[in-house]
Amino acid sequence: MPLMHLIPIIVALGACLIVAATPAAETFPQRPIRLVVPTGAGGNTDTFARVLAERLRVCLGQPVIVDNRPGAGGIVGSTLVVKSAPDGYTVGMVGQPHLMQPLLQKEPPYKPLEDISYITQVAVLPNVLVVSPQLPVKTVADVIALAKAKPGQLNFGSAGVGSSSHIAGEAFKAAAGINIVHVPFKLLPDIFAEMLAGRVQIYMFPLPAVMPMLKDSKLHVVAVGTLQPTPSLPGVPTMSESGLPGFQSESWFGLVGPAGMPRAHVAQLNRDAAKILAAPEIKERFMRGGALAVYGTSEEFKQLMQADYARYIKLVKDAGISSQ
Predict the structure, then answer these.
(1) What backbone torsions phi and psi does residue 258 show, to the nearest 5 degrees?
(2) pLDDT-derived band of residue 211, with 50, 70 and 90 as boundaries?
(3) What's the mean pLDDT in 35-45?
(4) Which phi-psi region, left, alpha or beta, contains residue 267 (left: φ > 0; alpha: ψ -120 to 50)?
(5) 33 near 60, Cβ under 8 Å?
(6) What contacts 109, CB < 8 A, 6 or more positions away?
(7) DSSP state of 56
């Protein structure tokens, strides 16, 4: 086998040497683990899941099988995870829709905080304010001024009601105090086509999704949602420093399991994921796509989700968001 093909395996082996010596690693797992992704193949959630699964296989000594279960904005996949046996053999890679979507349901199939075991955050990526090339703006202040001059006449797109881009767009709308109309989409090519045509003027994109269009200068990026400048977009200002002080908009992804998972299994998966995500090769791979590899304790991940959930409850109420 060529050396270049061995590099990911060598990295994973090196990352797992410490955890492989622990007692938990000797008893768990004894069979393949299913990693549920509540979106289709090819998106950010799927990409992060497959990177982690490939290396967890080496750490755990068992296959980690990615199982894409898209549907209902993520509800289908998240429900599958929370309803699974809490034995550590079914886990999920989730993002903000795991929290938002139940708030839009009359009878939500799960409680997003109580019905899961928090394992670890995996990645974070900035949301970026992107505008149609036909929109005569250059800054965040320009966008806000134009929207206020034309209330209800500008559209902002999203990947669907309750999606990360919808949450980001509503947060921008609220922070800026503007009246812009939400237009949800199902397919990314449709979004790009409508923006290039000028029928959708504004979008808060997760950076990896729009990076190719920005590199080709087909769409115009106005600002990034992180509090600090983003290395992947040198020279692009933050929204906080260019019109909305303190504004922050990021998309996170993390590993969860059903509530009641054995603590030893949660701790082992957390340690394995941390070793993998700390590897320079993984950090670089994420960075090339506009994301940051992030890891921490399960308690830190729990606090992040609790804080976001409280914000989403208020956002849904104040903005009058519904499942439509």
Answers:
(1) -65, 155
(2) confident
(3) 92
(4) alpha
(5) yes
(6) 75, 79, 102
(7) H
